[in-house]
Design brief:
Radius of gyration: 21 Å
Number of helices: 6
Order of helices and strands: HHEHEEEEEHEEEEEEEEEHEEEEH
Structural class: alpha+beta
Low-confidence stretches: 1-33, 75-82, 153-160, 272-293
Helix content: 10-25%
Length: 372
């Protein structure tokens, strides 16, 4: 029998383990307005009330903490020889390990701004209708994306970050017979009365212990979300509003003009062909950059919280990595039978020697068994 791995490597890829989960309980429940859920609503009523929050307008401040058991990569700051891959990995690791504060401004479905406040730096994602900007003040780089007209009425914006609404939506999508849904209890977040619901996997083979969501009693807006890992006393991921006020933010907040000396990349997704004025900065991924065409088709083993997503052979071509990429790949992963793997307190990823990628909220040993 193989010894259980106790290592925690340096980074986790942004993989969302979805796959074979059944239709959400909330989808089959009645969808009352938040004001009619009464003094003792069911969990289904509370969760269904989230559907009404996408037309809200508000301003707020979000606090995010992570404890995924990730050590720090060697610092690349001040090193002129640091590759863009190393710098980009350090940026990702910073988001996954450090605490962050963000200002959030939302005006209905198609206007939103998220400002991640770093020390002496700022990262922004701004959507105003079909225009989406990402801005990194430290790198002095901006990306401008023009969305197709069909996106004009789309809900919100994909910021690539985990807000309370993001985590709540994923948790709601996973409500199946594999999940125990707790009775709603009352709490208060940022001065707003909220219902709190706990979702607990029935399976003991998942790394996830539970997901706890707080939802505004009056509006259905998710106010906080916490993911707890098995065997860990502190939350693996916690995102919550520390301040929140309802009302339409100033229109100027959704306008953005990059500084004159900034390096700007433009992508016009309204045309069939993509047009880019510069090489993309590897640390910036704009909404809509990843398209489904030509993407490998995943397969899913298992179900619910223990499901494993597999991408086919050749998905990860290690042979094409340059010297810097190979060195970084070695730093971020650990050798296992048949490949290399990375595990955090919530997610594991296995890259096999033939280029398959397996991911799930399960231990690496489960991925190794699935790969065989």
């Amino acid at each position: 029998m193989k010894k259980k791995s106790t290592w925690l490597p340096a980074v986790v890829a942004p993989v969302v383990v979805a796959g074979a989960v059944a239709a959400p309980l909330a989808a089959s429940a009645a969808t009352p307005s938040p004001a009619t859920t009464g003094s003792h609503p069911t969990a289904a009523q509370v969760l269904a009330s989230v559907a009404h929050s996408d037309t809200l307008s508000y301003s707020g401040r979000i606090s995010q903490t992570s404890d995924l058991g990730l050590p720090s990569l060697p610092s690349t700051s001040g090193s002129s020889g640091a590759s863009s891959a190393q710098s980009g990995a350090s940026d990702v690791l910073d988001l996954l390990t450090a605490s962050h504060e963000a200002r959030v401004y939302v005006d209905g479905r198609s206007k939103a701004r998220v400002q991640v406040l770093d020390q002496l730096a700022e990262r922004d994602v701004i959507r105003n209708g079909r225009d989406v900007w990402t801005w990194d003040s430290k790198a002095d780089k901006a990306v401008h994306v023009t969305l197709p007209s069909s996106a004009a009425a789309a809900n919100g914006t994909d910021t690539g970050s985990a807000s309370p609404a993001d985590i709540a939506a994923r948790a709601i999508a996973g409500i199946t017979p594999s999940t125990r849904v707790g009775t709603p209890t009352t709490t208060s977040i940022a001065g707003h009365a909220a219902w709190q619901v706990r979702l607990t996997p029935k399976s003991s083979s998942t790394l996830v212990h539970d997901v706890v969501i707080a939802i505004d009693k009056s509006t259905g807006l998710p106010l906080s979300a916490r993911i707890d890992a098995r065997g860990q006393s502190t939350a693996a991921v916690s995102v919550r509003f520390s301040a929140l006020s309802y009302g339409t933010p100033k229109a100027s907040l959704f306008d953005f003009t990059p500084p004159s000396d900034a390096k700007v990349t433009t992508k016009d997704l309204s045309d069939a062909a993509e047009h880019s004025s510069t090489a993309k900065h590897p640390g910036l991924v704009a909404p809509g950059d990843v398209r489904a065409s030509g993407a490998p088709t995943p397969s899913v083993q298992g179900d619910g919280w223990s499901s494993i997503v597999t991408l086919p052979a050749g998905t990860f071509p290690k042979r094409q990595l340059d010297a810097d990429g190979s060195q970084l790949f070695g730093q971020l992963t650990k050798a296992v039978d048949g490949g290399r793997a990375v595990q955090t307190s919530l997610v594991s990823i296995l890259i096999t020697d033939d280029g398959r990628v397996l991911a799930g909220a399960v231990p690496v040993s489960a991925l190794e068994a699935a790969a065989e």
